[in-house]
Amino acid sequence: MSRILSVDYGKKRTGLAVTDPLQIIANGLVTVATSKLFDFLKDYISKEEVELIVVGRPLQLNGKPSENLARVEQFVNRWRKAMPAIPIEYYDERFTSVLAQQAIIAGGVKKKTRREDKGLVDEVSATIILQDYMRSKGL
């Protein structure tokens, strides 16, 4: 089997998470500068077998598009044109940043680390997106 990769796309930083090859466990992978995301993903996929990319769809609480949705859609369209063999799907990402912050605090991460490691929330958010996606698909 191959992995599923999730993307928590941000204006400056993007968090990534990935399943194990058996698609049982979702783990944080890394946070990358959004400007380097496309190249990072192409490189990662050249080394690891990925069957699907799940990208968080940023919506407001009322279901209307957030300001970041246009950037996410540009990325998704670019990906679909350049890498049509690897499908990409949207998944609702509402509340993932809040849940990620709560999980980081509950996990005992020190305040100084939380303040200094801005990408940690992005990576944990990508992991939550992937876990929710897997649960919704019965994986």
Helix and strand topology:
Elements: E1 3-8, E2 13-19, E3 26-33, H1 37-47, E4 50-57, H2 69-82, E5 88-92, H3 96-106, H4 111-116, H5 119-136
Parallel strand pairs: 1-4, 4-5
Antiparallel strand pairs: 1-2, 2-3
Descriptive account of the structure:
The protein is of the alpha/beta class and 139 residues long. Helices cover 43% and strands 24% of the residues. It is built from 5 helices and 5 strands, in the order βββαβαβααα. It has helices at 37-47, 69-82, 96-106, 111-116, 119-136, and strands at 3-8, 13-19, 26-33, 50-57, 88-92. Strand 2 and strand 3 (26-33) form a beta hairpin. Helix 3 (96-106) crosses helix 5. The relative contact order is 0.23. The model has no long low-confidence stretch (mean pLDDT 87).
Short synopsis of the structure:
43% of the residues lie in helices and 24% in strands. The protein is an alpha/beta fold and 139 residues long.
Descriptors:
alpha/beta; about 25% strand; single chain; 5 strands; 5 helices; about 140 residues; globular
Q: Give the strand line-up of the largest sheet.
A: 3-2-1-4-5
Strand/helix succession: EEEHEHEHHH
Proportion in helices? 40-55%
Radius of gyration (CA) equals: 14 Å
Which structural class do you get from the secondary structure elements?
Answer: alpha/beta
Q: Main beta sheet: strand number and arrangement?
A: 5 strands, mixed
Spans of at least 5 consecutive residues with low confidence: none
Beta-sheet strand percentage? 15-25%
N→C terminal distance: 13 Å
* Arithmetic mean of pLDDT: 87
The DSSP helix count reads 5
Q: Assign an overall shape.
A: globular
